[in-house]
């Protein structure tokens, strides 16, 4: 059973960097699947942030490019998100997810429970 | 990239069938079969309902079905049940940009 669990600060100050980690259990992330992050502002829809492959190749939402960095640590079976220069607009529930094997297909079959990150001073 | 277009809300009575549309462009929905649908109950993480336009993952009821015509994908729920009341989101891969886009979401009310 694949399980994903997000962790990180629930409160970040404006202009600082949001950092989250997703620990994966029940499956080796060094296998050929894409792993990613999706966020959902309170009461709003879903927004794809980006995906990363075990090789380290990452793809990002153009609207966030320049502020977002994904990384992966296969030795710890986890991957991470960093979002810089945050504003109140970045307040959201952040989900880590698994996409498809070998290719990005917008097929997110496993989700973490989500973690609320609030940007406020 | 623009979000896919979904109706904000749909409703139906128990036992009826409803269809939720998801409109995109020739660069996303029209380009590949990489279209998925998700169900989200309040306070919960989304759940994958349909992948690759019309494939149901194991464990998903056969009351849920997906299709595509041109640049528009559709999710049909037959035999509506009270438990189907939730938000539904479509997603698609954008060719040439290696990115993913979601629809704005549709709130289904079971009357």
Can you characterise this structure?
- The complex is a heterodimer of chains A (about 120) and B (about 110).
- With about 120 residues, chain A is mainly β.
- Helix content of chain A is about 0%, strand content about 50%.
- The model of chain A has no long low-confidence stretch (mean pLDDT about 95).
- With about 110 residues, chain B is mostly beta strands.
- Chain B contains no helices and 9 strands.
- In chain B, strands 1, 3, 4, 7, 8 and 9 form a 6-stranded mixed β-sheet that branches. Chain B has a 3-stranded antiparallel β-sheet with strand order 2-6-5, with no helix packed on it.
- The termini of chain B are far apart.
Write the layout of secondary structure elements.
The complex is a heterodimer of chains A (121) and B (111).
Chain A: E1 3-7, E2 11-12, E3 18-25, E4 33-40, E5 47-52, E6 58-60, E7 68-73, E8 78-83, E9 92-101, E10 110-111, E11 115-119
Parallel strand pairs in A: 2-11
Antiparallel strand pairs in A: 1-3, 3-8, 4-5, 4-9, 5-6, 7-8, 9-10, 9-11
Chain B: E1 9-12, E2 18-23, E3 35-40, E4 47-50, E5 64-69, E6 72-77, E7 86-94, E8 99-102, E9 106-110
**What class, by secondary structure content of chain B?**
mainly beta
- If you average the pLDDT of chain A, what whole number results? 95
Largest sheet, strands/sense/barrel of chain A = 7 strands, mixed
- Distance between the first and last residues' Cα of chain A: 39 Å
Give a brief outline of the structure.
The complex is a heterodimer of chains A (121) and B (111). Chain A has strands at residues 3-7, 11-12, 18-25, 33-40, 47-52, 58-60, 68-73, 78-83, 92-101, 110-111, 115-119. Chain A has 121 residues and is an all-beta fold.
């Amino acid at each position: 059973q694949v399980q994903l669990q997000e962790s990180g600060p629930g409160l970040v100050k404006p202009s600082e960097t949001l950092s989250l980690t997703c620990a994966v259990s029940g499956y080796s992330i060094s296998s050929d699947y894409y792993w990613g992050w999706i966020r959902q502002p309170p009461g709003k829809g879903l927004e794809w942030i980006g995906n990363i492959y075990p090789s380290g190749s990452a793809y990002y939402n153009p609207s966030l490019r320049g502020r977002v960095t994904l990384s992966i640590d296969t030795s710890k079976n986890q991957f991470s998100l960093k979002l810089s220069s945050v504003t109140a607009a970045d307040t959201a529930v952040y989900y880590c997810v698994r996409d498809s094997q070998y290719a990005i297909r917008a097929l997110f079959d496993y989700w973490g429970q989500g973690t609320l990150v609030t940007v406020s001073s | 990239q623009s979000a896919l277009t979904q109706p904000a809300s749909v409703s139906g009575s128990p036992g009826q069938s409803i269809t939720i549309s998801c409109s995109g462009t020739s660069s996303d929905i029209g380009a590949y079969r990489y279209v998925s649908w998700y169900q989200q109950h309040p306070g919960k993480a989304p759940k994958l309902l349909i992948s690759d336009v019309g494939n149901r993952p194991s464990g998903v009821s056969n009351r849920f079905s997906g299709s595509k015509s041109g640049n528009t994908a559709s999710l049909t729920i037959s035999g509506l049940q009270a438990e189907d009341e939730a938000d539904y989101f479509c997603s698609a891969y954008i060719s040439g940009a290696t990115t993913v886009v979601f629809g704005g979401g549709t709130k289904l009310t079971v009357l």
